[in-house]
Amino acid sequence: MSNTYKSAGVDKEEGYKTVDKIKKAVGETHNANVLNHLGSFGAFYEIGGYKNPVLVSGTDGVGTKLKVALDSKRYDSIGVDCFAMCANDILCHGAKPLFFLDYLACGKLDSEIAAEIVLGMVKACKDNNCALIGGETAEMPGMYQPGDYDVAGFCVGIVEKDQIIDGTKIKTGDKIIALPSSGFHSNGFSLVRKIFSDFEEEFEGKPLYETLLVPTRLYYKDIHKVIEEVQVSGIAHITGGGLYENIPRIIGEGLCASIDATKIKIPSIMLELEKRGEIAREEMFGTFNMGVGMIVVVDPAHAEKVLHLLDDAYEIGEITEGSEKIDLKF
């Protein structure tokens, strides 16, 4: 019997099945700017309607949250996570997402699982007026075990050059407003999985995996609702490293984000993790978003309007003078 690619562990037919299952749905994310369709070597996107456009790009993955999904055999939310981790980053600069590409790697491809993951991306793209214009599926036996998957993505957005938000306009007295997260989002799951070993256990009346797999919140509509009405000085996406690592990325020298951590509405699942794992509060805030998925920094004169525009947002601090870029008061 002669050797074939399939005998080496790669089933091309399963890849074709995946494309068949996602092709129509992916096409529904396209608009007039998309000049070609799935199957080309490259994806074409035409830009128009901007005076001095700047492209803003971001790439990320889902991390070991994917392990929770695989163990629980729940795949529909992971694609949303992948898109959100990329798109929320470019929102920090005032960009609107234009298009998204994905990368899916596995040991042995199952077209049902792959399609479910990609269809989650499709849903997220639709919600963000973004086109899913391409991707890559890599079946790599020997590199990954059967049943293992990894997911990553790449998002490109656009903003007028004179409307870029980069934190340089942040000044003393500006207010820091929190936008709640939907949970852990896609960060810190190596620690989450160490403490929560049984994803089937009941938590607040449902299997734990349902709470852990709530997808990362998409902030496109909220952020652009605000920046269309208010001059925003800075935006930070609170991902790995929590408030401690992400807020200082937009704070200039001589300024400090002074935050009253007692005002932060911490999700019950995070409090349970903290208690069960005997984790110090400072470690929690240095690992997880702790209920704050994004923050916006605005002049105090605009703070009330932001709170009015965003029903669930709330103020957690202000910008002060200081040598440390962040000061969390517990």
From TrEMBL:
Keywords: ATP-binding, Cytoplasm, Ligase, Nucleotide-binding, Purine biosynthesis. Pathway: Purine metabolism; IMP biosynthesis via de novo pathway; 5-amino-1-(5-phospho-D-ribosyl)imidazole from N(2)-formyl-N(1)-(5-phospho-D-ribosyl)glycinamide: step 2/2. GO terms for molecular function: phosphoribosylformylglycinamidine cyclo-ligase activity. Its EC number is 6.3.3.1. It is found in: Cytoplasm. It holds the Pfam family AIRS_C. Residues 171-324 form the PurM-like C-terminal domain. The keyword Glycoprotein does not apply. The keyword ATP-binding applies. It catalyses: 2-formamido-N(1)-(5-O-phospho-beta-D-ribosyl)acetamidine + ATP = 5-amino-1-(5-phospho-beta-D-ribosyl)imidazole + ADP + phosphate + H(+). It is an enzyme of class 6 (ligase). It comes from the Bacteria. Residues 54-159 form the PurM-like N-terminal domain. Belongs to the AIR synthase family. This is Phosphoribosylformylglycinamidine cyclo-ligase. It comes from Chryseobacterium gilvum. The gene is purM.
